[in-house]
Amino acid sequence: MRLRQIGDVVLTTPAVAALRRRFPDAHLTYLVEPAAAAIVANSPHLDQVVVVPRRGGITGLLADITLGRRLRREGYDLAIDFHGGPRASLLTLLSGARRRVGYNVVARRWMYTDVVNRPRELRRRHSVENQWDLLRALDVAPPTPGGNPVEMPIDMGAASAVRARLAAAGVSSDDDVAVLHVSASSPFRRWPIPSFVETVVALASRTGRRVIVTSGPSERQTAAGIIDNARARLPENERHRVLDCGDFSLPELRALLDRSAVYIGGDSGPLHIAATTQVPIVAIFGPTPSERSAPWRDSVLLFTALEIDGLPCRPCDQRVCVPGDFRCLTYIEAPRVIAAAERLLAARRRLPVSQ
To answer: Measured between alpha carbons, how far apart are the two ends of the chain, in Å?
Structure first.
């Protein structure tokens, strides 16, 4: 069970694959909320995905009790709560599984039969490794990025739709496509808009490039503004290189990144979707150290982490910015991101075709 967020669900996929290897004949079910369901919908390791809508109040509680009764009837032997929130803890208990593994959370540890300690301090240890602590009692070998990468299988319908959309936008097979994702779940992970504009302009100024700006549903206007501002700063004959392709679903974003030459974005769900592909990645880290949230995949794949070290306020709990200026992000200037992207694009051209 991992109800949300998108990136957090992606980061459970190495554990899902490991559980399938450990229990090859088991029936494996994943409980997830709708926003992140596409991440695991096509997983070859799962027998069933149960999408659990978010509902509040008494209606939501009654729906969860009904779901708990259903799970109990199905007779699960083991439930693993990768989430640890109140709703996930309750559903784990209601499942009736004989063995229930979860974190040592105050006031809810009694809901589990196997309780795993989770230090409160912000450790420089990857989230995949932190989650793997839940698997230790199951005789599952420790993970490595190369041997246990994050996964999101390609959706062939989404891939076909993306190819058609790029062709309609005039993108040729020889064009390098750069994807910049401008959304983040909070201001603590949102790189400044002017910096995104500067980066788009720089990347689009080269012949043979196309730049696509993506965002979450709540920041469509932000993405549109970045596109408009970047086009306004480019010569008229270069503006077509900045594409306005509309929204991409998560499966479409996954397919788009398969076709892309570089991905640039902050510490958000799409960064981890990018990690399920071989696309070169420039990741912009704010309050979270890269050791905790870097793309979890084979180290031979191209990746650059950009962050500001030496700040006394970093890492932080992302509740209040003590300096008030989000300097862990604002101090990362656009020329540094542009240079990193150009290095990865150049390195990608030197790789063998198989890469």
So the answer is: 34
Residue 165 belongs to a domain with what CATH number? 3.40.50.2000
- SS3 breakdown of the chain: % helix, strand, coil, rounded to 5? 45, 15, 45
Q: What is the pLDDT of residues 166-210, one digit of tens each?
A: 999 999 999 999 999 998 767 888 899 999 999 999 999 999 999
Q: What pLDDT is recorded for position 234? A: 98
As a whole number of angstroms, the distance between CA 270 and CA 274 comes to 6
pLDDT tens across 289-325, in order?
A: 999 999 999 999 999 999 999 999 999 888 899 999 9
Distance CA 265, CA 254 (A): 14
Asked whether 113 and 86 are in contact (CB, 8 A), the reply is: no
Q: At what angle do helices 334-350 and 193-204 cross, to 10 degrees?
A: 40
Tell me, yes or no, whether 200 and 123 share the same domain.
no
- Sign of the Cα torsion 101, 106, 108, 111 reads positive
167: DSSP letter: H
Cα separation, 209 vs 176, whole angstroms: 5
Domain that holds residue 63: 6-138
Structure tokens at 263: 């991905």
**Backbone φ/ψ region at 324: left (φ over 0), alpha (ψ -120 to 50), beta:** left
Verify that 76 and 161 share a domain, yes or no: no
**In whole angstroms, how far apart are CA 178 and each of 95, 109, 166, 273?**
44, 45, 13, 15
Residues 178 and 97 in one domain: no
- Whether residues 214 and 73 share a domain: the answer is no
Nearest to 60 by CA among 83, 96, 87, 81: 87
| Residues 6+ away with beta carbon under 8 Å from 165 | 245, 246
- The fraction of the chain above a pLDDT of 90, given in percent, is 86
Contact indicator for 48, 29 with CB cutoff of 8 Å: yes
Question: By CB neighbour count within 10 A (0-12 exposed, 13-18 middle, 19+ buried), where does 300 fall?
Answer: exposed
Tokens encoding 16? 């899902």
